[in-house]
Amino acid sequence: MNQKPLIKGPYFDANPTGVNERIDYRKDSHQYAAIKRSSSYQFDRETIFPRIYSQKPYHQYFYKGYLGIEEGRQANFADNLKFFFNYQIGHMYARYFLWNFVGRQNDQQGNGSLAEGNWLSGIQAIDNLYLGGQSKLSDEMIHNPSRNTYFFLPLLIGIMGALWHFKRNMKDAAVVGLLFVFTGLAIVIYLNQSPLQPRERDYAYAGSFYAFTIWIGLGVFAISEFLKKYINERNATLMATSLCLIAGPLILINQNWDDHNRSEKSLARDVAKNYLETCAPNAILFTYGDHDTFPLWYLQEVEGVRRDVRIVVISYLTSDWYFRQVKSGTYQAAGLPITIPNEKVAKGIRESLPFHDLNLAGSTDIKLLLDFLLSDSNENKLQMRDGQYENFLPTKHFKLAVNKVDVIQNHVVPKEWESEIANHLEWTFNNDYVTRADLGLMSVLVNNNWQRPIYFSAMVPSENLMGLDKYMVNEGFANRLMPIEAKLAEGESLINVDNLYKNIVEKYAWGNIHQATYIDTDTFRFAGMYAEEIFGKAARTLLAQGKTEKARQVAIKAFNQLPQRLYSMSDVTSYADVIDTLYKTGETKFANQLVDRNMKFLSEHMDYYQQLAIDKPDAGLEVRNIKTAIDSVDLYERILAGTREKERYTYVADLGRKYKKMYLGE
Q1: pTM for the full model?
Q2: Do residues 348 and 37 touch, judged by C-beta distance below 8 A?
Q3: Are 327 and 335 in contact, with CB atoms under 8 Å apart?
Q4: Which DSSP state fits 462?
Q5: Which residues are registered as beta bridge partners of 42?
Q6: 267 CB-near residues (< 8 Å, 6+ apart)
Q7: Any bridge partners for residue 66, and if so which?
Q8: Are 278 and 475 in contact (CB under 8 A)?
């Protein structure tokens, strides 16, 4: 389906009635081969200028809530226009425009909440009328470097400059106006963005903001001309220039420098190094996408770090060109042991093979399945509705034989785990179709024979692991595939805690996040992951194994390396295992500091959410953050119950009762 229809397209609740096909072409060795592809669906209900078109379930849910479409009512053109003006123009353009010339609440991504990502002027009466809650801002909100307030001054100067420009020279002003419109509103129409974007898209409209700054510059002449009516020309010019310097570049520099300065930031490099240093020598490391791959390529290419590791972007592996590329080596790393001929997975061939259950008994060897999926015989294919034959997956129950001698000789598992090596891996494939990337991974499993360590970065989603989750062993920033049979509780994972401890204490770097004046949104998300998934999980596991001193060292490392302030309500929960370990290993002073800081953050934010509910009763509660806060208080209460900190325990228990009575009626 066309992802962004512009002239004509479906409503989000329309039903598909057919498929439009198009012909693409693949260049073979001596000729071009035609490839039939599905280009778009046909629908029973379409409209001109479609704005609410996405068929994705979470988008459909958003459309209904945002537009107030009750159950049983179909979307109509009025809903279409409402979404265009209110969301695409209002939320996804005007909000960004006002960020630049009025001010910004914070750098958290805004999806409609009054507490995240809105424009803000710094004039409390106006901000409170628009957003509410301004009388109960927390210390973190007030002193957040990304809270930038310009008091409407750049906007007003720009408007004055535009009016002066149109009055003095209509043709020149029209040119700037066209630049402003075509790099702003026209981009809104062309992009036709669906809701819940993965990140803020303000950069898409930078040209429009640049155009407006031309008028801000001309605002000097507008103000000067106005002042000349009351004072002499020289003084008017000096006063207008001074005023515009203060209200323009100086206020912007003052407000923006701290949250745009990147001189203290080294997280991308350090995280990339952590990924690579997690891997054993000569490893294959599967990453997921751009963000967790490009810094690794930089380190290998520019700094020469861990060139023995072959990095493979699993999302790129679905393309024929990259599938061919990964067979070749890079630096000191050999290519992937994939034996699938290129012509078997050329463009248009075996890109997505369906699952059709043949009810095979037990689990099927992955080599047999791979041969079946690569077979060119129609006897091993499924006849489709159009009469053509296509390979298919006959079962989701996979099996891979394990040679224990190879596993031990290649030091695949820790020595103390050698008795738990399985005779075979047995798992359930977790998708309804097989991609080219799945075929590549299957070939690696068949041919590697445990000779090279296989890792998956912690960022790789479960759906891209082919169902191998239970054989993934956490070693920090990456999980290693090991043939270990272990009985785990639901949601738990195997942890090679000795390697994890060594990585944390000896190898990993932390991007200067403890000292940095400002931490951007991507960085503080990583900080929360560090606290919970790296430090917390390691400390908790070491404690459970009776390795108290090592657990203490990990918790102290966390205290010394994690940020000194919190950035989101979820961070309060993320620190729980670190705090618990500090108490249990005698580091009460550090634990108390974290508890006091975190509870202060939580209570001030809860006061703010309560004030929001009073000021903006129709906007709804900050349900997600309130629930996280209540769960966090319960968690801290349980931690403190096992300590001698009676006053802190009483304080936290009182908070819990207060919030439960207020929001849960308990």
Answers
A1: 0.90
A2: yes
A3: yes
A4: G
A5: 18
A6: 510, 511, 512, 513, 522, 523, 526
A7: none
A8: yes
